Amino acid sequence: MRDEPPEKPTDAEVEALLAAAKATRKRPTRGMWLAAIVVSLACVAGLTYALVKNWDAEPDRSAVKSASRTSSGGFGLGLIVGLAAGIAIGSTLALRKRN
Description:
The chain is mainly alpha-helical. It has helices spanning 11-24, 30-53, 74-98. The two termini are 45 Å apart.
């Protein structure tokens, strides 16, 4: 037995949904924008300092290893840590907005 596919929404239904979504969406606060700018500036400043300080330095050849001699957990571990941090931050923001 096959289920019938759902009907396509009409243009009026789509417009009503978009209007409702636009009305309920909260704009980011000024504090959130300020925090994002501060974090961005700190990252740019750190990168600039590192580049200027080490511009003429010779690369450290002892840090270069072949893939066969290194453990394969670096990328995966970073991905897991980033995912966990994203979930934690997102959950915290969602719970904060609900209350």
